Amino acid sequence: MSMIRYPGTYTDLYQLTMAQAYYLGGTRENAAVFDYLFRKNPFDGGYAVFAGLEDALSALEELRFEEREIGFLREQGFDARFLEYLRGFRFTCDVHAAREGEVVFATSPVLSVKGPIIEAQIAETLLLNILNFQTLVATKASRMRFAAGDRSLVDFGLRRAQGLGGYHASRAAVIGGFDATSNVRAGMDYGIPVSGTLAHSFIQSHDDELAAFRAFAEQRPQNCILLVDTYDTLRSGVPNAIATGREMEERGHRLAGIRLDSGDLAYLAKRARAMLDEAGLGYVRIVASSQLDEHAIKSLVEQAAPIDAFGVGTSLVTGRPDAALDGVYKLAFANRGPRIKITEETEKITLPQLKQVFRLLDGEGNFYGADAVALAGEKDVEAMHHPFDTLKSLSTRGFAKERISRPVMRGGARTQKPLSVREIAAFAKARLGQLEDEYKRFGRPYVYKVGISDRLKAVRDRLIARYRRA
Amino acid sequence: MSMIRYPGTYTDLYQLTMAQAYYLGGTRENAAVFDYLFRKNPFDGGYAVFAGLEDALSALEELRFEEREIGFLREQGFDARFLEYLRGFRFTCDVHAAREGEVVFATSPVLSVKGPIIEAQIAETLLLNILNFQTLVATKASRMRFAAGDRSLVDFGLRRAQGLGGYHASRAAVIGGFDATSNVRAGMDYGIPVSGTLAHSFIQSHDDELAAFRAFAEQRPQNCILLVDTYDTLRSGVPNAIATGREMEERGHRLAGIRLDSGDLAYLAKRARAMLDEAGLGYVRIVASSQLDEHAIKSLVEQAAPIDAFGVGTSLVTGRPDAALDGVYKLAFANRGPRIKITEETEKITLPQLKQVFRLLDGEGNFYGADAVALAGEKDVEAMHHPFDTLKSLSTRGFAKERISRPVMRGGARTQKPLSVREIAAFAKARLGQLEDEYKRFGRPYVYKVGISDRLKAVRDRLIARYRRA
Questions:
Q1: B-contacting residues in A 136-165 (Cβ below 8 Å)
Q2: Quick check: A429 pLDDT over 70?
Q3: CB distance from B13 to chain A under 8 Å?
Q4: Residue of chain B with shortest Cα separation from A10
Q5: To which H or E segment does residue A139 belong?
Q6: Which domains, and CATH codes, for chain B?
Q7: What is the CA radius of gyration of chain B?
Q8: pLDDT, tens digit, for every residue of B242-298?
Q9: Cα end-to-end span (Å), chain A
Q10: Could you write out the DSSP letters of every residue in B377-419?
Q11: What is the pLDDT, as a whole number, of residue B453?
Q12: CA dihedral B163, B168, B170, B173 (to 10 degrees)
C-alpha cells in the first residue's frame, strides 16, 4: 500500500540504548503500558482529528532490523547478545486506540501499548513520528472544511511540504475533509482523487496566453481548468479563457474552470464570475489558490466570493503555525505497578494504569462535551473529576456513553483488516458532525471537558503522595 | 545511500498534465531554462544555507516511472503515447547550482535547469520538495549554531518531525552546524554521529530513581548521560546522579553527563554545576533540552548558564515558525526566447534567461555584502542595479568576485561524485565564517544586496515593456 517501509533504525538512539539496558538487565519481558496523548489541542482549537493509525499499525507489524542496520549498531558499540535479539525482533504487544478519524481531546489517552517493556519502548519514536504529524494535518484540514462549507478543497502542498512529510500530509488532509490532492503518489497509494491542470510555466512557454490556453484545451478537453493570472487576470486571463471556452463549446466540450492564483481573490472572483456569466459560461467553475488557510477561506466565504473550489498548500501540509503536535508517549504501568511522572508543572503529571475513555452523549446522540478517563476494568463511571482542580466535578449518571478506545492489535497482529482512507474520512466526517460548532470555532472555542473517574483519581493521588513523601 | 527512492509519481498531477500537452503538442524538445529561487530569507533573517542538493541530484538521476505507476496514470486518462514516453523516461538536462552548503540570498537564482521543457517541467515538484525543506532546516540550524558558539548541538527532533520529513531534517541540521542526531537511520545513511541515552520511562520503570541510574550505568558505563528531572531535579535527580557517578569512579569509569529536560534551565544548570563541582565531578557535562530554539539558546548563553550541550527538537526539524521556505521554480527561457512572469506584485516579476551570480568580496576575502545576477555569458559585471528601485545601483569595478553557481549535472549525469554531509557541513561553516555577524543577527539583520547587471536589466525591461504594451 504505502510507498514507505520504515526501517527499524528509523528511531531515536536512546530507544535502543534503553532497550539494551532492559535486555541485559533482565527486565525486558516486564509488562508495561504506555499511553499516547497530546497536552494541548492544535491551533488553539477545541479538538483534534486522530489520524495516522493505519499507517502506524502497518509500521509496527513490519518492524524489523535488517542486517545492515545490525552492522551499524555493532559499530556504535551495542552488545552482541542484544543485537541478536534485534535480529529476530517482532512487535508482539497489544494496542488499544480510538478509531482513526475520531474526534479527540487534549490530555485524554488516544492510544495505549501494552506488552513487554522492551518492545513497547522500541515502538515509541515510530508511533510519535507517524501519529503526531497526521493528527496535526487532519485537524488543520478539518478547520478548513469547517470554513469552506461544501465548497471543494484540494491539497496543493507537495512542493512546500517538509520533504517526504508531504506524502502522509495528503492522506491526512483527506481524513480531515479534503476532496482531492495534487500529489499523484499519495493518490495512487491511498485511493485519493488526484487533481491538477497547468501552471504559469505552460502559459509562459507559449508566445501568448491565448495560444497557450488553446494548446492546452486541445490536449485536454476534459476537466480543463485554465490559470488566468500570468499577465493580467481581468484584462487578459479571463477574456482569453472565455474565448477558449467558446471555442471548446464549438467542438462539443466545456471549459471546466478557471484558477485565480494571485491578487485579491474576493474581488477577482466576483469580477470573473460576472464576466463568465455574461459570456454564457455560467457553468465554468472558479478555483482559487494563493496562501490560503482556514482564516482566509472563512473570510472569502463571508464576503460571498463566488469561489467553487479552494487549492491549499503550505498552511495545510505543514500544519502552520503550530508545525507540530506535542504528542507524548508516557509510561503508565511497569514493574508490577502503576507508574507516574511527577513534575513542577502540574498539568504534565501523567495518569497511571491501563485506561479507557467514556464519551458522554446528549439526547440527540451528539457529544455532550465531556470525556471521562477511567481504569480499564471500570464498567461505567458515576462521576468525573477535573484532573487538577479539586473544586470541579460532574455527575455522569444517566448519560448515554460510548467507549472511545478499542483493541486494534493483539499480540502484534491487527484485530481487523485495514480501513481505506475513504472509510476513515467518512467516519471523521460523521464524528465531526456530532461535535457542536462551539468547539470548532477558531476564536476561543468552548472547552471540551476531559475528566477522570473516582477510581483513577484514587490510584493517581496515592502515587503522587508516595513520591512526594519519598 | 538514502533510505528513500523517490517514485516518478511523487509529483503534482499538473506536471504530468503539462508534460503530456508538451508531448502531444510537439513542443517537448524545446529548450527551456527554469530557475529555483526563494523570495524571502527564512525566519526574517539575513541569509539562507542552501541544502538538499546532493539528494536532489540523486533523485533526478534515479527518476523513473514504474509499471504500476504507468497503470495508475492510464486510469487517470493519460494518453497511451505519452505513457510510452514516461515508461522510457530519463532526466537528461543540465543543472547549474550553488554548492550545497553555500550561503545564499532571497531573489537570487540558486539552481537552474536547462534542457527539454518536458523534462525540466517534470523535475519541478521533486526539486522544490527536497530543496525548500532542507534549506529551511539548515538555515534554522545555522541560527542555533550562531547562538550556541562552540557548545554542542544535538538534534532530538524525530518524534515531532513532520513524518518522514524527520529523515532529511537530521541531514540538513548537520549541514547548518549541528554536531549529532538522535535519528539512528539518518546517522547510518549520512554518516552523522548519533547520540542519546535514556528517557523518563526508563527511570519510571524502576522502583526508584537511584536504582534506575545504577542499572543504566552498569549496562552503559561509556558515554552515560543521566536524565535528572523525572521527580525533582535538585533534590533527587542531581544527588542520585552524583551518587551514581561516584560509584562509577570506583569501577574505573566516569559519568559523562546529566540532562536537564524541564524547569528553568539557567537556574537548574547553575545549581547542578555547583553541586557536581562540589562533589568532585567537575568533568560531568550538562546537557539541556526542552522547547529550545535559537532565541532560548541565545538567552541561556547570555545568562552564562553552564550548559555544555543543547538538545533541540521541534523548532529545528520543523523550521518553526516559518515551517516552509517559499522557494519557487520559474521559467526563464523557452520557445527560443527569454521568458518572464508579470504580476501586480512588482517583487514577483521574474528574471529572464540563463543567468549566473557574481559575489563581491572585500579586502580580507569576506563577503562584501552584494551579489550581482548577470546573464550566463557575461565575463564580469561593472555595475549592479537594484531590481526594482531605479535610484539604487552600485559600481562593482575593482572588487574581487566569485562565481557562485557551477555545472553540477550535464545531460542528466553528475559532473562530480557526491559530497559527504561532513564535507558539505565543513563548506557551510567556512562560508558562514565569511559572512559578517550583522547579517546573522536575529533582530533586523543588515540587508545583503542582490542586484542585476546592465545587460540582464536591459533584457528584462524590454520584455516587461513588450507585455505591458500587449
A1: 156, 158-165
A2: yes
A3: yes
A4: B185
A5: helix A124-148
A6: 13-137+322-469 (3.20.140.10), 142-317 (3.20.20.70)
A7: 26
A8: 999 999 999 999 999 999 999 999 999 999 999 999 999 999 999 999 999 999 999
A9: 51
A10: T-S--SEEE-SS-TT-EEE-TT-EEEE-EEEEEETTEESSPPP
A11: 97
A12: -120
Closest to B197 measured CA to CA, from B279, B297, B311, B318: B311
Per the listing, cell 481505506 goes with A420
- Cell digits of residue B314: 521541534
Amino acid letter for position B414: R
Mean pLDDT of the residues in chain B: 96
Query: What mean pLDDT is predicted for residues A76-86?
Result: 97
Is A445 in a helix, a strand, or coil? coil
What interface predicted TM-score (ipTM) does this complex get?
0.97
Cα A65 to the center of its chain, rounded Å: 28
What are the cell numbers at A52? 495516522
The helix or strand, by DSSP H or E, that contains position A383, with its residue range, turns out to be strand A383-385
| Secondary structure (3-state) at A155 | strand
End-to-end CA distance of chain B: 51
B271 touches chain A (CB under 8 A): no
Element (H, E) at A224: none
- CA A178 – CA A9 distance, rounded (Å): 33
Cα(B245)–Cα(B222) distance, integer angstroms? 12
Q: What pLDDT was estimated at residue A1?
A: 63
Q: How far, in Å, are A125, A130, B183, B186, B347 from residue A8 at the CA level? A: 10, 14, 11, 12, 47
Q: Give DSSP secondary structure letters for B305-368.
A: ---SEEEE-HHHHTTTTT-S---EEEEEEETTEE-----SSGGGPPPPSSEEEEEEE-TTSSEE
DSSP letters, B23-52, are HHHT-TT-EEEEEEE-SS-GGG-S-EE---
A–B interface: beta-carbon pairs under 8 A: 332
Band (B1; pLDDT cuts 50, 70, 90): low
Query: What would the pLDDT profile of B290-330 be if each residue is shown by its tens digit?
Result: 999 999 999 999 999 999 999 999 999 999 999 999 999 99
The label of the residue with cell 526539524 reads B317
Give the model confidence (pLDDT) of A287-317 as tens digits: 999 999 999 999 999 999 999 999 999 999 9
Q: A23 to chain B: nearest residue by CA?
A: B219
Ramachandran area for residue B120 (φ above 0: left; ψ -120 to 50: alpha; else beta): alpha
pLDDT tens for A115-127 read: 999 999 999 999 9
Q: Max CA-CA distance within chain B?
A: 86
Q: Compute the distance between CA of residue B234 and CA of residue B231 in angstroms, rounded to an integer.
A: 9
Burial pattern B206-229, b for ≥16 Cβ within 10 A else e, equals beebbebbbbbbbbbeeebbbbbb
Phi and psi at A400, nearest 5°, equal -70, 140
Mutate to test the interface with B, among A162, A340, A343 (most CBs of B within 10 A): A162
